[in-house]
Amino acid sequence: MSNVRSRRAVAAVRAAVCAAALAAAVSAGALDPQELLARADAVRSEGREGIAHIRATTVRDGKPGAPQDLDLYVAEGERTLCVFRGGQQHDRRILVVGDRVWLIVPGASKPVPLSANQRLLGGAMLADLTRARLAETFTATMRPLEESVDGTPCGVLDLTAVSAKFAYRTGVLWVATSDGLPRRLRLSLANGKPARELLYLAYAHEQGRPLLTKLEVRDLLVQRGGLTTVLEFSSFERARLDPTLFEPRPVR
Fold first, then answer.
1. Is 99 contained in some domain?
2. C-alpha 17: how far from its chain's center?
3. Mean pLDDT value across the chain
4. Buried-state track 201-234, b at ≥16 Cβ within 10 A, e below 16
5. With left for phi above 0 and alpha for psi between -120 and 50, is residue 47 left, alpha or beta?
């Protein structure tokens, strides 16, 4: 066996052992709920700085629209820049820095600040959800009984926002007892109304670590027909990003 194959085999065995141990802990309720939130965060980018390449497909009334490619620049300090690639919205940008969000339209004289309500819509909503750090945003409490998500037994966590500044004040996270990975997340507004449901549809493994490759986001505020966005994470490039990327400035 070559050295490369040997390393891959060792990584696979190590991942299987870790998954089995984690599954036992989840099933027994022995794992700290905040650790489960941190693990749910890690399946996206493990907190790494760099660029995620995403393909987004919006499905309205059961009819899929044209796919939209996105580049998501992620850096420390709660900084995210979502750049649309191709199509009519090419180079349109959503910039998120801490609690502030701007829409940047190519050719416009200046970025447009978005209100809290506007952040719940379209590209701003996707930028917010894909960068969200559950472990920093919510405290979690494990329910005593398991529930099933599409036939998968899951531990259930009730989430409460640590601050009133967050758009989503409560949530429920379903974590598979088989591998400790998130399967469903439902987020609600301050009035208790469910707003978003996220379905974690597919994972891949990179050096023995699980990474999310497909996420479905359901808009629960749409009263008729239904609105769903499917995000496919094709790759993630580690990179040290220029800080000026996250400055609200016009794009020519």
1. yes
2. 26
3. 81
4. eeeeeeebebbbbebbbbbbeeeeeeebbbbbbe
5. left
Backbone angles phi, psi at 126, to 5 degrees: -65, -40
Q: Which of 10-14, 46-50, 181-185, 245-249 has the lowest mean pLDDT?
A: 10-14
Strands (E), 47-137: 50-60, 63-64, 68-75, 79-85, 93-97, 100-104, 112-113
11 Cβ contact partners less than 8 Å away, ≥ 6 residues apart: 207, 208
User: CA-CA distance, 175 to 40, in Å (whole number)?
Assistant: 9
Kind and range of the H or E element at 155?
A: strand 152-161
**pTM of the entire predicted model:** 0.80
Which two tokens mark 156?
Answer: 């259930």
The predicted model gives 25-46 an average pLDDT of 71
Q: Is residue 241 one of the residues assigned to a domain?
A: yes
State the total domains in the chain.
Answer: 1
Q: Is 204 left (phi over 0), alpha (psi -120 to 50) or beta?
A: beta
Contact criterion met (CB below 8 Å) for 197 and 218: yes
Question: Does residue 252 lie in a domain region?
Answer: no
Domain boundaries, position 24: 3-246
CATH number, domain containing residue 7: 2.50.20.10
- Judge whether 43 lies within some domain: yes
What's the CA gap between 25 and 15, in Å, rounded?
A: 15
Token representation of residue 244: 């000026």
